[in-house]
């Protein structure tokens, strides 16, 4: 029963990711490009997680974010897809992936699971609220797609970094190395957002 549950949860996460990713990019790119990019990102994520867990190096779990991002960036550049638009479409998938991990992990209590899942779900209305209103922000002069994904990502990474510093045992990112890298990713997201706002990126 447990294995069936894990397979179903993974399948739901996989299909949800591809659907949202496709829906966000379908107006600008071919469906074949979008699905190829999405599947490539998922495969690189799964392979990275398997290798990190296989060698028991939990301090390198940050690679599960960095490796897929680098792989997808390389594909995007090669196929003339704008990286800021791809990254923006990726954020909901990041949240869904984190929720999927929580559902697959054996947690001490259902209350803790509910708390963590709801905490992650809050990022989705934040993202879609920003997506609907970012063009009204006067500070964001360029109006380029990417504001909602980058700002949400910076908050998401900072929140996970705070938890990683506390070494909370049921969170995917644990330990100081993960926390430091996540903070770097949060700062990187903010810097990228600033460059986009100035029409530089």
Notes on the structure:
The protein has 201 residues and is mainly alpha-helical. Helix content is 75%, strand content 0%. Helix 1 runs antiparallel to helix 2 and helix 4 (83-104) runs antiparallel to helix 5 (110-121).
- Based on Cα principal axes, name the global outline: globular
Please state the average pLDDT score. Answer: 85
Order of helices and strands: HHHHHHHH
Largest beta-sheet characterization: none
Using the CA coordinates, give the radius of gyration.
17 Å
Count up the helices. 8
How far is it from the N-terminal to the C-terminal residue, by CA? 49 Å
Tell me the β content: under 5%
Secondary structure: number of strands: 0
Task: Please estimate the helix content.
Answer: over 70%
Give start-end ranges of low-pLDDT stretches: none
The secondary structure category is mainly alpha
Please outline the helices and strands.
Elements: H1 2-25, H2 31-54, H3 63-78, H4 83-104, H5 110-121, H6 123-133, H7 147-165, H8 175-197
Helix pairs in contact: 1-2, 1-4, 2-3, 4-5, 4-7, 6-7, 7-8
């Amino acid at each position: 029963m447990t294995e069936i549950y894990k397979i179903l949860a993974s399948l739901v996460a996989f299909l949800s990711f591809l659907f949202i990713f496709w829906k966000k990019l379908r107006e600008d790119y071919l469906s074949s490009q979008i699905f190829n990019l999405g599947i490539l990102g998922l495969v690189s994520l799964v392979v990275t997680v398997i290798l990190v867990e296989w060698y028991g190096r939990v301090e390198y779990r940050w690679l599960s974010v960095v490796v897929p991002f680098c792989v997808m960036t390389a594909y995007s550049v090669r196929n003339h897809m704008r990286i800021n638009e791809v990254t923006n479409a990726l954020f909901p998938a990041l949240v869904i992936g984190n929720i999927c991990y929580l559902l697959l992990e054996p947690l001490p209590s259902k209350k803790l699971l509910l708390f963590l899942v709801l905490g992650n779900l809050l990022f989705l209305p934040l993202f879609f609220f920003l997506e609907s209103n970012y063009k009204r922000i006067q500070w964001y002069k360029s109006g380029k797609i990417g504001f909602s994904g980058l700002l949400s990502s910076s908050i998401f990474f900072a929140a996970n970094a705070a938890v990683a510093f506390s070494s909370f045992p049921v969170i995917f990112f644990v330990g100081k190395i993960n926390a430091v890298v996540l903070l770097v990713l949060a700062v990187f997201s903010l810097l990228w957002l600033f460059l986009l706002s100035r029409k530089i990126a």
